[in-house]
């Protein structure tokens, strides 16, 4: 899990084989987003505002599933 400095996102990890982005939000909700390209994830990691980038480029644009709460 890559820690992210953001008011919205606590951390994220990416599985390039499955094109799955896993995100842990600051409230510790844990979600998986499916069909996310590696280049988009790179842009998220390098964005000045990760939360704004996520809301504009990923949220509601990819199928997702809430996994639960992050404990770690």
Task: Please describe the structure with a list of short key phrases separated by commas or semicolons.
about 70 residues, alpha+beta, five-stranded antiparallel beta sheet
Précis, in short:
The protein has 72 residues and is α+β, with helices and mostly antiparallel strands.
Question: What does this protein look like?
Answer:
- The protein is an alpha+beta fold.
- It has one domain (2-69).
- 24% of the residues lie in helices and 38% in strands.
- It contains 2 helices and 5 strands, in the order ββββααβ.
- The chain has helices spanning 38-46, 50-57; strands at 2-3, 9-15, 20-25, 29-34, 64-69.
- A hairpin with a 4-residue loop joins strand 2 (9-15) and strand 3.
- The mean pLDDT is 94.
What is the β-strand count? 5
Low-confidence segments, ≥5 residues, pLDDT <50? none
- Spell out the helices and strands N to C: EEEEHHE
Task: Summarize the amount of helix as a percent range.
Answer: 10-25%
- Give the overall form: globular
Approximate strand percentage: 35-45%
Major β-sheet strand ordering:
1-2-3-4-5
| Mean model confidence by pLDDT | 94
What's the number of domains?
1
* Biggest sheet features: 5 strands, antiparallel
Query: What structural category arises from helix and sheet content?
Result: alpha+beta
Global Rg:
11 Å
Q: Give the count of helical stretches.
A: 2
**Spatial gap, N to C terminus:** 10 Å
Annotate the secondary structure layout.
Blueprint: E1 2-3, E2 9-15, E3 20-25, E4 29-34, H1 38-46, H2 50-57, E5 64-69
Antiparallel strand pairs: 1-2, 2-3, 3-4, 4-5
Helix pairs in contact: 1-2
